[in-house]
Amino acid sequence: MRQTRMAGQRMGEAAGGTLGWAHGYHLGRCEAIRLRYKPAAPPCAPVKILYIPQGFHAIDHGIVQALQRLVKELIVGTPRQMLELAKQTRPDIVLVMNGLHVFPADHLQQIDRIRQLGIRTVIWFADDPYFTDDTAVIAPHYDVVITHEQSCVSLYRGLGCREVGYLPLAVDTELFRPRQVEPMYRSDICFIGMGFWNRIAVFDRLARYLAGKRVVLAGGLWDRLAHYKLLRPHIREGWVPIEESVKYYSGAKIVINLHRGFSNEIDNRNSRAIPAQSTNPRTYEIMACGAMQLSDMRADLPALYKPHNEVAVYQSPQELMAKLDYYLTHEEERREIAYNGLRRTLAQHTFLSRIGELLELLGIAKASGVNQ
């Protein structure tokens, strides 16, 4: 620990001339932590996988990089060519990410045909429970259903799916990492995400407080705010590319995480009103950038990060405001939570770790072949 601090201080002093000592020191500490948690080369499983991405680069890139290290052979296909590629390459497993939004009308017919070829099919849902009206139709067509949402496991089992597993998402630490940023990306408080109605309600409550702070509020639908004019100078409208998100996270003193509501019929397709209990990808992405995260509580969060030690939590707008005030004036505590969260993320929540867990869930042995 002492060596880590000393390395961070040296790196911070070197960077201090251009970034300011405090920001440079913080980056140095983060880089020293990253150096301590570089993963060893993992054993390779003797299995061929055809991976079909959803089109979420932040997730797909991390999964592809991990699979390339963890399996004997990886083929990356497209939703329209699943069946054709499966016939040509004869993989042991077809792994589909999410199966929504960009998948063609014959998606399920393709999967049925692939199963008829004797190829094991796996889908990993990453948008649960917000599109369960759709995923409930998709899931029974697959041999194995994996979901990042705890509350959806019983749904899929109730639909007759024989193999159902829960697996949280993770982060691509090549894309999401602490960065040096220009002053335009620095803030006291940052939130990136769509203006879903539950978020609108919270930020409208906080509007007058936030208006007096250095704030970044980025994403779409924020014109829904009743206090839109008041917060307009702080709003960065539209889609935020990954590289921009990384800069905003890296430049923020505190990053708010406020999960999407699960019951709104305008923004969701969840007529069963299945509750959302699991953390979103943003949870890991914020941590990987070395930022302190102030998150609303989700049921599985304490199993992933230690509240108050690796992540700060709130359960009401009033508590959120109070904790923003507290951590903005207690820099050392804020920094330590950020460093602890970064350590936990690098140790347990990278896609390399998570895909290793996925292979175990699928019964794939690293040295003795595939158990189907």
Automatic annotation (TrEMBL):
Residues 204-359 form the Spore protein YkvP/CgeB glycosyl transferase-like domain. InterPro entries: YkvP/CgeB_Glyco_trans-like. It holds the Pfam family Glyco_trans_1_2. SUPFAM superfamilies: UDP-Glycosyltransferase/glycogen phosphorylase. This is Spore maturation protein. It comes from Paenibacillus rigui. The lineage of its organism: Bacteria, Bacillati, Bacillota, Bacilli, Bacillales.
